[in-house]
Amino acid sequence: MKRTEAITRIGALLDQRCAVCPTRDAMNQQYKTAFSRIDGYCNRECLTGRELQALGKQLTLRSRKKIDESDEQKESHLEAAQHYDKIIIHRRVAHAQTSI
User: Fold this and answer.
1) Which of 9, 20, 28, 31 counts the highest number of beta carbons within 10 A?
2) What is the model's pTM?
3) Which residue range forms the structural domain that includes residue 80?
4) Are 18 and 98 in contact (CB under 8 A)?
């Protein structure tokens, strides 16, 4: 699966399933701002959450113009890009939760 396809699929899942999830809504009302509890449930018990996790792991970087850099620099850049992808996904989840 291509990166753009994975991102599109993630967005669709968040919009179609997470945005209308009654369990998430109930937990949100019960715990108010305890996002970690809701997120923990979604990541461990929800099938959609597991699917989102699997799609997130498929987000890979495409090959870029080769630059002479050390292995440490390469690893640092890759970690930063992966961290950015996680931030985007978490923001979409947060947005989906607040838009209801």
Assistant:
1) 28
2) 0.53
3) 3-61+68-98
4) no
C-alpha span between 78 and 93 (Å, rounded)? 23
Q: What is the dihedral of CA 20, 50, 90, 27, to 10 degrees?
A: 50
Beta strands in the chain (DSSP E): none
**What are the CA-CA distances from residue 31 to residues 38, 93, 100 (Å)?**
8, 16, 16
Per DSSP, the three-state class of 26 is helix
Q: What is the DSSP letter of 17?
A: I
Taking the C-alpha atoms of 30, 35, 36 and 42 in order, what is their torsion angle to the nearest 10 degrees?
Answer: 80
Q: Dump pLDDT digits (tens) for 35-62.
A: 767 778 888 889 999 999 899 888 876 6
pLDDT in tens, 55-94: 988 887 667 666 666 777 778 888 888 888 888 888 888 8
